[in-house]
């Protein structure tokens, strides 16, 4: 069975991994990307591990469901703000797509959550208790309040009747909207996953900015150019918040920021940066050209999605490599807390 | 007494002398737990088997990993006890110089086998009694230092759910499927678990996991059903060397401190306790360990902190971000002076 040979120069062709590596040889090695792009901020760390096996169990969430859920929640939450603003400032052309967008996005995001859970009854089971220590419990109740409001707002918009009820629902959904857009950051951060937890201070701001760019992207693509002014401004402000907060977050995180700079998350996050910045610039200088506005909207929508998927995958990668769990903890111990 | 924090401990982190009481059991029995003394573990995996048998856990994949004798790899939905095998080229006690065999040509020695006068000849696997050189323990692998210790050491440790004082899995569960028992342990109720999977990344030790094709999560219950009937958990019952000890946590802590002192006195200076301190990041573990190397060598986190310690701060930042988002929207609608 064994393919190995014992020679005078030692063993050749032996199966690797009989001996638990202790010290410099431990852990899986990742090669840093060459050339352009940021250099890994921390030198390759030396640490011990159990055969390079992860310390944590990796999140079992399906990426499409949960990253999609985060993205659509943001899109919906910020769209509700746009809808309320447009309604209050007399921009029906902007209010309509924003209301429909909020209702549609939150419905699909709920569907994604139910799909991840396995069956609809399980969402109702979420509402059997309210636990402030569980962001998922808080979020479920938030959605249970928010989703009907957006649906009411959208339904009255489509029906063109019950204006008063519609306005009230729009205003109320705008109150809950920002919370829907940012609570998902706590949902990720309240775990032991290094690349999610370590960024807990800035991640809500990243998600808030990304929600703003997504909602303004949808509005730019769907609203008449004459009424898209606020969406343009929101796109620029949101992009600034998202990109700024993400930079600040990575700077503070140290080693656990590394998964953002490697592999698939790196590609996704680079794309997110380029699309968001480009989309915001187009929104600002695009004038009234429909095609340019459409392109700006599409860029902003995809950029925001890429950001959520990038953050999601980086977290999973950080949970799978024991280095990101062990090294910061070891350093903390050596510093004496 | 009004200083609740002092007496009852904190709800989210820090020392908590009365876990069961804080969870609403007024007359709880003493907190029960495991002390796993890995220095006497012989790697027989009786605990793994006993756990599987008693709890009727499905098979978890028959793979040959090549990782020493470890084919279960780690804790998960279908592995509630996991015996780790660490092969180390490290002297156990003091290293004995001069026993290296780098200068011996084994191929030449093999060619002379059976031809030399002192050779026992083909067929003999060990020198007959009385013919072995003085001081060489018969039948043992060389190189052996005078005290009988070999240069390769095996660390074996049976890992399990830590039944944390502040259990992240329990705190983040949105349905209340995870609960604190009257014994201070942490148990999943399989009929309530929603399969949301939130507890999985929340556990700082990588214990609880989702069962494939089931969707729900599973982990060690510290044999809640046996405890209720006054029996000890299946793994502790099956352990032939008493490496796994079960009992009131306070008693176990005292016993463990004594054992460490004993090992240190015997020259095993690597011995240390892991997870026993109520001052650590999870408020102390209900299942703690005596290890002979750094925790990360065994696949354990060196300094785990319950994630909910930062939860109030997280909510604060999220609220601030939500307000910022609303402010951005408001700013977007503000009319610019023309
Ligand atoms: S070790 Fe993990 S699964 Fe066990 S009680 Fe602690 S947090 Fe929960
Ligand atoms: S998977 Fe089950 S036990 Fe874990 S957090 Fe969700 S509902 Fe609770």
Q: Which parts of chain A are unreliable, with pLDDT below 50 for 5 consecutive residues or more?
A: 22-40
Q: Please describe the biggest sheet of chain B, giving its number of strands, its sense, and whether it closes into a barrel.
A: 4 strands, mixed
The whole-angstrom Rg of chain A is 23 Å
Amino- and carboxy-terminal Cα gap of chain A: 50 Å
Write down the secondary-structure element order of chain B. HHEHEHEHEEHEEHHEHEEH
Largest interface: A-B, 88 and 77 residues
What is the overall number of helices of chain A? Answer: 11
Overall geometry of chain A: globular
Structural class based on helices, strands and sheet pairing of chain A: mainly alpha
Tell me the strand order in the biggest sheet of chain A: 1-2
Structural summary, described in words:
The complex is a heterodimer of chains A (337) and B (338). By secondary structure, chain A is an all-alpha fold. Helix content of chain A is 67%, strand content 2%. Chain A has eleven helices and two strands. Chain A has helices at 63-88, 92-117, 121-125, 135-159, 163-189, 194-197, 203-222, 229-253, 263-285, 290-320, 322-335; strands at 5-7, 10-12. Chain A has a two-stranded antiparallel ribbon with strand order 1-2. In chain A, strand 1 (5-7) and strand 2 (10-12) form a beta hairpin. In chain A, helix 4 runs antiparallel to helix 5 (163-189). Chain A is globular and about 65 Å long. Chain B has 338 residues and is α+β, with helices and mostly antiparallel strands. Chain B is built from ten helices and ten strands. Chain B has helices spanning 4-8, 19-22, 46-55, 106-111, 168-172, 199-202, 224-228, 234-238, 249-265, 311-333; strands spanning 32-37, 81-89, 152-160, 178-180, 186-188, 209-210, 217-218, 244-248, 272-274, 287-291. In chain B, strands 8-1-10-9 form a four-stranded mixed beta sheet. In chain B, strand 6 (209-210) and strand 7 form a beta hairpin. The chains are: A mainly alpha (337), B alpha+beta (338). Chains A and B meet through helix 1, helix 4, helix 5, helix 7 and helix 8 of A and strand 2, helix 5, helix 6, strand 6 and helix 10 of B.
């Amino acid at each position: 069975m064994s393919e190995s040979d014992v020679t005078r120069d030692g063993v050749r062709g032996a199966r690797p991994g009989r001996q638990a590596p202790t010290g410099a040889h431990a852990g899986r090695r990742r090669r840093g990307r060459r050339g352009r792009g940021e250099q890994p901020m921390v030198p390759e760390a030396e640490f011990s591990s159990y055969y390079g096996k992860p310390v944590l169990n990796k999140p079992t969430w399906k990426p499409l469901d949960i990253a999609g859920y985060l993205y659509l929640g943001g899109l919906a939450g910020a769209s509700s703000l746009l809808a309320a603003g447009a309604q209050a400032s007399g921009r029906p052309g902007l209010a309509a797509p924003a209301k429909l967008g909020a209702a549609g996005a939150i419905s699909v995001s709920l569907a994604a959550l139910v799909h991840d859970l396995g069956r609809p009854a399980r969402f109702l089971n979420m509402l059997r208790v309210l636990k402030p220590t569980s962001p998922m419990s808080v979020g479920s109740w938030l959605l249970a309040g928010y989703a009907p409001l957006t649906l009411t707002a959208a339904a009255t918009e489509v029906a063109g009747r019950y204006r008063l009820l519609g306005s009230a629902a729009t205003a109320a959904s705008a109150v809950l909207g920002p919370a829907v857009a940012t609570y998902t950051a706590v949902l990720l951060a309240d775990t032991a996953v290094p690349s999610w937890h370590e960024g807990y201070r800035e991640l809500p701001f990243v998600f808030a900015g990304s929600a703003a760019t997504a909602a303004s992207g949808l509005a730019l693509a769907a609203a008449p150019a004459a009424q898209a002014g606020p969406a343009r401004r929101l796109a620029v402000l949101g992009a600034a918040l998202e990109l700024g907060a993400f930079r600040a977050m990575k700077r503070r995180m140290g080693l656990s920021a590394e998964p953002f700079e490697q592999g698939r998350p790196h590609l996704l996050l680079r794309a997110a940066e380029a699309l968001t910045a480009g989309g915001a610039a187009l929104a600002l200088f695009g004038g009234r050209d429909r095609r340019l506005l459409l392109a700006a909207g599409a860029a902003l929508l995809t950029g925001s999605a890429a950001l959520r998927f990038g953050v999601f995958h980086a977290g999973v990668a950080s949970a799978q490599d024991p280095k990101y769990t062990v090294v910061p903890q070891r350093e903390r111990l050596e510093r004496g807390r | 007494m009004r200083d609740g924090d002092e007496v009852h401990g904190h709800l989210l982190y820090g020392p908590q002398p009365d876990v069961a009481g804080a969870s609403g059991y007024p007359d709880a029995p003493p907190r029960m737990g495991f002390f796993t003394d890995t220095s006497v573990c012989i790697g027989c995996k009786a605990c793994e088997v006993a756990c599987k048998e008693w709890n009727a856990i499905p098979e978890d994949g028959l793979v040959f990993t090549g990782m020493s004798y470890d084919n279960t790899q780690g804790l998960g939905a279908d592995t509630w006890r996991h015996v780790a095998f660490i092969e180390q080229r490290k002297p156990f006690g003091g290293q004995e110089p001069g026993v290296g065999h780098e200068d011996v040509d084994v191929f030449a020695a093999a060619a002379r086998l059976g031809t030399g006068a002192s050779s026992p000849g083909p067929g003999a696997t060990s020198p007959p009694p009385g013919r072995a050189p003085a001081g060489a323990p018969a039948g043992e692998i060389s190189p052996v230092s005078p005290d009988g210790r070999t240069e390769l050491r095996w660390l074996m440790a049976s890992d399990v759910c830590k039944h944390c004082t502040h259990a992240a899995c329990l705190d983040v569960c949105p349905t209340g499927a995870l609960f604190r028992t009257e014994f201070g342990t942490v148990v999943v109720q399989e009929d309530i678990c929603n399969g949301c999977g939130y507890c999985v990344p929340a556990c700082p030790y990588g214990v609880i996991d989702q069962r494939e094709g089931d969707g729900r999560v599973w982990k060690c219950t510290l044999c809640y059903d046996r405890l209720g009937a006054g029996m000890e958990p299946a793994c502790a019952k099956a352990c032939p060397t008493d490496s796994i000890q079960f009992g009131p946590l306070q008693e176990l802590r005292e016993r463990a401190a004594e054992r460490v002192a004993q090992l240190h006195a015997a020259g095993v200076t690597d011995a240390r306790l892991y997870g026993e301190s109520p001052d650590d990041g999870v408020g102390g573990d209900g299942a703690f360990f005596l290890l002979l190397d750094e925790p990360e060598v065994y696949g354990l986190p060196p300094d785990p902190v319950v994630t909910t310690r930062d939860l109030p701060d997280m909510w604060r930042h999220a609220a601030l971000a939500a307000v910022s988002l609303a402010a951005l929207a408001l700013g977007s609608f503000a009319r610019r002076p023309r």
